[in-house]
Amino acid sequence: MARTRLAFGSAFALMAIGFTFMAGYAAQARLNPAVIAFVDLEKVFEGLDSRQTSEESIMALAKQIEDQTTSMEEELELLQAELESLEPGSNAMEAMNNNVIGVAGRLRAYQKYATLILEREQANELKATYDAIREAARRFADREGIDFVVMNDAMVAMDPTADSAGTLQQIASRKFLYANPTMDITDALISMMNDSSSG
After folding, report:
1. Backbone dihedral angles phi then psi of residue 185, each to the nearest 5 degrees
2. How far lies 4's CA from each of 17, 79, 84, in Å?
3. Helices 49-85 and 91-144, interaxial angle, to 10°?
4. Partner of 79 at 20 to 30 A CA spacing, among 21, 89, 115, 178?
């Protein structure tokens, strides 16, 4: 019995020493407060020179698609006008009708294809820009000793025309109630990215 008490006492003493040691270590190894900065992502997107160049390229592609579509539509209109001038039931009318159907089918197929191409180009451009912003934010944070760069949604105005359900949804989707304006690195990030792209 005495041995059991002695064993329990020794175990408790060792545990107490262990906890004391751990508490002392935790106090010494206390982490420094994290440095957090934020960006207005929409403003970054709009302020990048590379983004404007990409948008011009996409607009040129959209213009090219529009011109080709217009050309095919004009061809179809001419064929339809010629079709109306032919004698109903004649071989010439049947051949022209088949021609009209073929051109109309090609037009629809081209419009679908062109829409997919344009959407894919826009999606690729957005993703490439977002990836570039993330990488630039990492480099900026490394340089300035920042631990986290977050997107600040506190500065985005809420839709005043929304009903109660819409307002609650807007509130629920937000992550920040307040962000200190001095921690906004939006303009500095835009400048860094534009300088590196022009250099």
Report:
1. -110, 15
2. 20, 106, 111
3. 170
4. 115
